[in-house]
Amino acid sequence: MLNAHVIKQHHSDLFTYLQGDLQSSASECRSPEDAAAGTLIYVGKPEQLENALLNETAIVIVHRSLADRVRASGHPDTCVFSVAGIPLAMAALLKYFDHKSERFTQWGQHHPTAVVHARARIGSDVFLGPYCVIGAEASIGDGCLIGSHAVVENGAHIGARTILHPHVFVGAACTVGEDCEIHPHTSIGSDGFGYALGPDGRPRKIPHLGNVQIGDEVEIGSNCAIDRAKLTSTYIRSGAKLDNICHIAHNCDLGENGFYTAGFMMAGSTKIGRSFSTGGNSVVSAHLTLTDNVTLAGRSTVTSDITEPGQYGGFPLQPLREALKTMATIGYLNEIRKNLARVMKSLRAANAADADVVDAAVADAAARCASRRSRESPRPSHTRRPHTDR
Questions:
Q1: Based on the structure, what is the number of domains in the chain?
Q2: CB-based contacts of 293: which residues, under 8 Å, 6+ apart?
Q3: From first to last of its 390 residues, what are the pLDDT tens digits of the chain?
Q4: 250 an active-site residue?
Q5: Which residue segment(s) compose the domain that 66 sits in?
């Protein structure tokens, strides 16, 4: 339940009150097409606003470009706020309608099947779901929600108010900061992929003795794998957001406030700076450094350091504007190839014709020279008998 007065009192930095009854309350949030009494609606288009007002929606959040339409609507009782950006408005208010905690609290505070080691430390207001496992010397901060079948191994630390969804694995000695959320089937702190070839050609596993350190307010999607370091730490810095199916190899360092879209993969010992963002299925190779404020287009591949902030894309990686031109050109490669073949054939034919002309000219010149030499050469002298008197 959300009361309009709460928005005005606690979120005035984002929302501007336009009109209506501040005692209005919304029990749920719906899409503009499903507007109804007792709901909160976000509106970005004029037709959506008209539908929301006609259905006597309890609270309407409009883009500020529609503020004048609200005042002229003739529905002064509907409580309306304006906002500069709808997505940020959703981030601020949808939490009032989120019943996520009920998934964890429905079993009671500590489910009887939860396995907690005697030397583990559990904070206050922690909820432990069915069959979760908390190892020796592990610590769970105040207000954490630990889902069913989640595993927190020996010596691991989970910060206050962090949520571990069902089937999350946090390996030994790893740390997760405060106010984080890790979604189902994600593994944090499994061994990295490190081997050495023995004299017989067989791979020998290199033990990974390091850990993973995750900062505050980090969110990691489902089915992600974040490997522990060999000797030091793999870092996911505060504010980073990882989508589903991401892989972070050992010894990597991900900077603050980065966005890593689904399918992102990075090889070991690579460092990415602050405010990084990438489209899906991007790959960053090993032992690289990417500076702050880098953006990658989807399906990009990085094989060398990026030292300048900016937008990049493609493989080989290019500045995004050039990469888009390259991608646009790829669709015409077959046509370009055929046209090039035609041009080369014409050039060869022209060259052959030119060669024939040259050969003919050379032959003609040679014939003329031979004829001229023939005319100009001295006639052979005849032997005369000596004159004798008779």
A1: 2
A2: 273, 274, 275, 276, 309, 310
A3: 999 999 999 999 999 999 999 999 999 999 999 999 999 999 999 999 988 888 889 999 999 999 999 988 877 888 999 999 999 999 999 999 999 999 999 999 999 999 999 999 999 999 999 999 999 999 999 999 999 999 999 999 999 999 999 999 999 999 999 999 999 999 999 999 999 999 999 999 999 999 999 999 999 999 999 999 999 999 999 999 999 999 999 999 999 999 999 999 999 999 999 999 999 999 999 999 999 999 999 999 999 999 999 999 999 999 999 999 988 888 888 888 888 888 888 888 888 777 766 666 666 666 666 666 666 665 555 544 554 444
A4: yes
A5: 2-97
Amino acid at 275: S
Spot the catalytic one: 117, 183, 250, 387: 250
Give the end of a domain, one of 73, 97, 121: 97
What is the spatial distance between Cα 139 and Cα 154, in angstroms, rounded to a whole number? Answer: 9
- CATH classification of the domain holding 216: 2.160.10.10
Q: Which positions ≥6 away from 244 have C-beta within 8 Å?
A: 183, 221, 222, 223, 224, 262
